[in-house]
Amino acid sequence: MDENAITLSINGRDTTCFVRNAATLLYILREKLGLTGAKPGCLNGDCGACTIDVDGEPMKSCLMLAVEGEGKKITTIEGMKQTTIQSQFIEKFAFQCGYCTPGFIMNCHALIQKHPDATDDMIKNWMESNICRCTGYKEIEDAVKTALRQANQNTDG
Amino acid sequence: MNWSIGKSPTRKDSLEKVTGAAKYTADFIGAQMLHVKLAVSSHAHAKLKKIDTAKAKQVPGVHAIILGPASPLTGDEVKDRPIMASDTVRYYGEPIAAVVADHPFQAKKAAELIEVTYEPLPVINSPKEALQPGATLLHKDLATYEKIPHVYPEANTNIANRTKIRKGNISQGWDESDITIEENFSFSPSDHTAMETRCTIVEIKPDGVVHITSSTQAPYKIKKQFAEIFGLEEGKVVVHAPFVGGGYGGKVATQLEFIAYLASVAVGGKPVKLLYTREEDMVSAPVRIGLDASIKLGATKEGKLTAAEITYLIDSGAYSDKGSMLTKAAAATCTGPYNIENVSCDALCVYTNHPYVTAYRGFSHSEILFVFERAMDILAKKLKMDPLVLREKNVFLPGMTTPTQTVLNHSTVGNLPNCIDKLKDLMNWDEGMVVRVADNKLRVKGISCSWKTSTISGASSGVVLLFNPDGSVNVLSGIVEIGMGTKTILAQLLAERLKMDINKIHVQMEVDTKVIPEHYKTAASRGTLLAGRALLKAADDAVSQLKHIASHVLTCSPDDLEVGYEKVYVRDEPETFVQVKDICYGYEFPNGNSIGGQVIGRGNYTLRHLTNLDYETGAGKSGPEWTVGAQGVEIEFDTTDYTYKLLNAYSVIDIGKVLHYKAAMGQVMGAMSMGLNHASAETFQFTQDAIISSPRLRTYGTFRYGDHPQYHVHFFETPHLDGPYGARGVGENGLIGMPAALANSLSIAAGVELTKLPLTPESIWRAKEGDEEK
Prior knowledge:
heterodimer, A: about 160 residues, Ubiquitin-like (UB roll), DNA polymerase, domain 1, 2 domains, five-stranded mixed beta sheet, about 15% strand, B: about 775 residues, alpha+beta, Aldehyde Oxidoreductase, domain 4, 3 domains, 20 helices, about 25% strand
């Protein structure tokens, strides 16, 4: 089994690990680095449960090879501390089983950072890439819209 | 004034779940862990002529390859299923072999190199086909399979169970009717699609103790089944259920755990992990029932129902798993929430070459209500009567008798007339059911009523409360946290009972069957009733222990004491008290003498007075109480291309005391979404050889953000006197009326009686054009 050393910048720290060229970033995050917040749900980009942040863009880590992560700034759910969107998910009961939650939060967070003035259409376009099977999406809608409003107020103020 | 119940305290699992710290089965990772991948059937029905593993064995990293043993057979009610197919495959995707390797990619590579030679057999693609004279028998040994009593497989047929309902006199019912309607309904099996695919880790320790970690709703059932099937001591089987990423009934089945056990045995007990791919989770693992149904209703011209004759053919797929119990539930609930004096119903659990079925949120109720509530709308149309008025004339009220001849009372059934009135209000019913909003656009309303009980006789639950030295309490319950928040509700119930801060109540999330008292299964909307009652009993036990110790400290009778506000105090002199924290580990007197010890509260609860159903008539008490509801949908329908938008969805449900408002709302809205999703998009597509095309999320039609309607939810609170503080079950009720309500709105919009699911623009077009085979 051929493995090569790569260095990944994850949650503000550089980590060196040995990976197969064919290993996905999701697999390495979970199996080699113990960052299990990103979840496997489909392994082909359909469900969004493995979403992480790569250089400010939400990225499905099952669609990216670990070796592609070199030289990029990677943030996983484990790197998120007391963000507005996390407290809004708690406040609005925007999770039940919680399995899709890390992916949704990473996606929402990237949206809020990039487009604090996102329109309803834009929110829909972004959120469509993740699936939640427990809620009826209403609670997630409330959480992301409230977090966006708060981000806007902070920008204005 | 309530202390905690009726409010919406933060979920106890909040911080773990929004930070990625919450551990699900697949998140347990170990350097020594081996990985299992499956080879599955590419045929729906075939003899296995040869399984060649020579090439697979050559793959580096492979430790073992396991083929399906012919015995033991497994199954909840009828033991009809091998752990993996041994000589015959009966559905597409059925596991045939398992490979154990160091890494998942090696196991996968080897599994794909296993060469299977099949001899195809005739395929049965629907329950109707399965019952044709001369149909291929899928289980030739059906008559000799081990089974529980009160399940009735029929030898030399494809019928795994039959439940009959015979209430009143059906021919008298037809005599009394002025108008009759008849219709047939059908739909194919579909999937639970929990976001966490099923996963298990099995390890056998040197002392023979088997540890199973699993994404399961039924850890205690796994323990019993492992003991029974593999001949193990129950004390040597330990099941761990961490957080579960959605179940919806699909994770009450035991399947991959058996395979992983064989895999661990093959590698000397080392820990092995089997994580299903999405495709395996959809097709190889158990699914939701399909149905072929025919129904005939009779009514007087005033709209009083007089007779119902119904056949429900449940597509159980290749094996019965929960199929026989789903059949029983379908029969027991067969008429929806309506009082009909004369009922004849046969519900059959039928084998086909589809993936086998297990529980699905609603346990037959949404499927049966789709049929019955569509029939009610067809009848209302023939009677030229408002469909809600027809329902009002026939709803179940206290004093009336269910199809299984149980007399309802003010506690066991909620108030459906209230629900219907409120629904009219919310839906602006007086406006009319159809409003033209543009040349080709109609805004259309559809409704349905529902009821739900749980046919789970013998179900019980235990709770232990452990006090900490600071007076806080740890709650141990075998409920698995699959998303519904029951463990937070248990904390609320305890906070209410002890009048204490909920933040000082700590609930154990992970279930460990060795040390946590048993809870039947996390299913059937009964967590709150079973575990809630057990918890209240445990609280009473703790209260009496606290009073006993305090009575010595305060030198009075325990009868004069109350527990609350983290104190034990004298009832009519509350300023005389002792702090709970000062006595919950016993009490030391100033002279050094000590009394008491750690307070440990124990409680249990078993559903009482449920009975088996009589084979000939179905008579018996099928469930503890019936939660009722009235639901509606408003759509915007395009008359040119049959596309539609879900605008509004309504649920008015009598859930008894609302314990946690936001959790209840979340359960109901999520369930409504699931019901609408099933009705509008979800199904397996079978070829004529019963091969499932594209089992993946991209094409399956799972709702995404933005597909959701505006939700309108209202609760009534008729107490169930047995329920904790009067609560009823609520996990499934939001779902069960939705398919019927959507189908009723679309039938009105399209001007054609829709009898099949899912309701896609294409399926509406086919019905409208009168050519279903197009």
